[in-house]
Amino acid sequence: xxxxxxxxxAASRAEEEFARLERTLHxxxxxxxxxxTIALMxxxxxxxxxxxxxxxxxxxxxxxxxxxIAVAAPAPLVGRLVNELNGLPGQPLQATRAVDATVALxxxxxxxxxxxxxxxxxxxxxxxxVATGGGAALATAVETVVGHVEASAHRTDAITDAVPSQKGxxxxxxxxxxxxxxxxxxxLVAALLxxxxxxxxxxxxxxxxxxxxxxxxxxxxxxxxALVVGPLLGAxxxxxxxxxxxxxxxxxxxxxxxxxxxxxxxVFGIGLTLLLFVILGNPSAGGAYSTxxxxxxxxxxxxxxxxxxxxxxxxxxxxxxxxxxxxxxxVVAAWAIGGAAIALAVAKYRARPxxxxxxxxxxxxxxIATL
Length: 371
Known about the structure:
The protein is α/β, with parallel strands linked by helices. The chain folds into 2 domains: 67-161; 174-357, no CATH class. 68% of the residues lie in helices and 7% in strands. A 5-stranded mixed beta sheet has the order 2-1-3-4-5, with helices on both faces. The longest helix has 45 residues, at 326-370. The radius of gyration is 30 Å and the shape is elongated. The chain starts with a helix and ends with a helix.
């Protein structure tokens, strides 16, 4: 073979290799830019921007709104003082009459009022009762508002912390971080189980087994978290059993809701889980700032999302004698039951075509065997 033939053969092979690489490049680009990939990227972008919007929107300008305060004052003064507090610009306080100082103190200690103002019959020094156990930022906000009112009336107030936070819970944030830890573990274990096996269980029995597995995990995580913040760290002491029970319910709630989203939307369900628990739930939960200090949207959703309901439940259990905690627990239970029911229902619905296909295949095998 001449040199010219060798040259032409080499050129032909190079052209073929280039064409193959070009086809491979086109295939790679087509796969990389599939609708599914683009949808995932857009979804992550929306979640990231939503995170910024939600957290900055909730925390950039905290201000009190209708914070309940019980007012005990002499009869000729109490009506005017209550109206004055309720008429402040922006309605930072929601004042109600208390029969006497004892009733006002009881309202603060059971959490039905965030503060109490006690005005004596004589003198110009009043007593302001606060509850840092319900949130240090909220107590500070009430002190500021009432201090301005007192100064305008040429009076002063002596501040008493009627429900102080525990020694290991200096800023009253331990309950919030406990709830965050419970929730993170719950939705992570459900998501990982979906990735390890199948995001959408193909039968109600498989979904039930997965729910039972997450229930076992929830009990371990719930009581484990209570032991960590209690005996181990001394942050929230004296309520291990009750906190463990609430924590178990909350973790199972996160697992069940995550399973429901995955059953409905597959991998995109994980994004919806993050939207609910992280982007909407955490900033509205009343952790760094109590719900009374949040803007209207976050204040409105706080009590109906598991995060906010659980934070309030933990605080009421630890600091307010579990007064009126049932409503918060019912919110978490409703999400848990709803999530489990949806996950089972969707799995049962998806099992129908699988069962039908299995019957057809079995019938065909029987026909062949007969022949």
